[in-house]
Amino acid sequence: MMNVKEIRKRLKEWGNFWYLRRLGPGFAATSATHKLCEQMKTGVQGEVNQAQFNRMSDNLFVPAHIEQVDAAIEKLSVKCRLAMINKYVNRNKDNGYFEREAELHLMKLL
Fold this sequence. Notes:
Layout: H1 4-23, H2 32-42, H3 64-74, H4 78-89, H5 97-109
């Protein structure tokens, strides 16, 4: 079983990973210019759907230790999960009951 200091270190790594990933929207597999050129060459107007406007990265590599923390956080209650996201990903400085409760549960899960 880990102690609180080790848990907080792993949560900081987890939070930094997801904080940096949420800053940018990523890149689409096909650029908007390429899609427009395709439509002009074929003369067929493509149907506007959600897939054309998906700007999320197609391939996101998540290290194993981050996935392990993700899996443990998924097992927490909703309020504890939100407390972890607010503190470590959104970087809010609220030290509340659910934050401490989540850290105690994560000590058992990790």
